[in-house]
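Our consortium's second objective concerns turning raw sequence data into structural hypotheses that experimental partners can test. To show how far this objective has progressed, the report includes one record in full. It was chosen at random from the queue rather than selected for favorable results. The single chain below, 285 residues long, was entered without modification.
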Amino acid sequence: MTPAPLIDELRALLARPTVDLARAALVIARVEYPRLDPDKTMAAIAELGERAAERLAPLAGEPLADRVAALGRFLYKEAGFCGNRGHYTDFRNSLLNAVIERRTGIPISLALVYREVAGRAGIEVFGVSFPGHLLMRIPAGAGEETPLILDPFDHGRQLDDHDCRALLRRQLGSDEPFSAALLEPCTSRQFIARMLNNLKRTYVEQRSFPQARAVTEMLLAVEPGVGSDLRDRGLLAYHLNDFPTALQDLESYLRLRTWDARDKEERERIVEHINALRHRVAAFN
């Protein structure tokens, strides 16, 4: 399917007061699976939610941590979900239908599964855009002081402050300061943008340029003010021999971005691309 209908669907979902993240993720999955029936995946999620609710029913009134532990046992032990450590960059790890079918994924896709199943079992879950590794946040229950922070990639393991600091060091290095703001919930739009960014990076690494371009088009619809996506769309158009579009995007990127001395090398590369593209486009006229 061409990106335009998918972009329209995604925009419509994100414009709703309550965003159905699973439906939005299945719109994204149709870049790879254009004939995907989203209702089939949604039915599988609903069935998981019903089973989770049955497991948690006897724990009604118990501390939140106990109910969350039971939910983790259901999802990761009984239902068999796990982080795909052996093939982390497989594009299917980012596509919700494939994650449900294969029972494996990356942090953000597993967090989405967890969130959808937990919500149907009466537990509210939010995504946390932690640097390099999406986490989950469950608001504190009645009589409790602090929210729970969980790692969806590590069997829903609960993380304390020390664990979060250690994870930050692994992702960004020892000099990156830790702040409690890093554990604040992300918005639905931020969640979808991060999912799209992960998928774009994977497709580029695998040189699947048509899919990468479609995902970048969707990113520009979700976050139109992000200049790097405009640059990337131009470079992808260049790889796909769509030289007029590549020229237009890269000229816009050069004009709209605020440049400083630290950006000298990138700016020079963009100018080189633009000059080469101008010659190519002129040859067509």
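The partners drew two points from this record. Residues 113 and 228 are 29 Å apart (CA to CA). Residues 225-284 form one domain. Both points have been shared with the crystallography group to help prioritize constructs.
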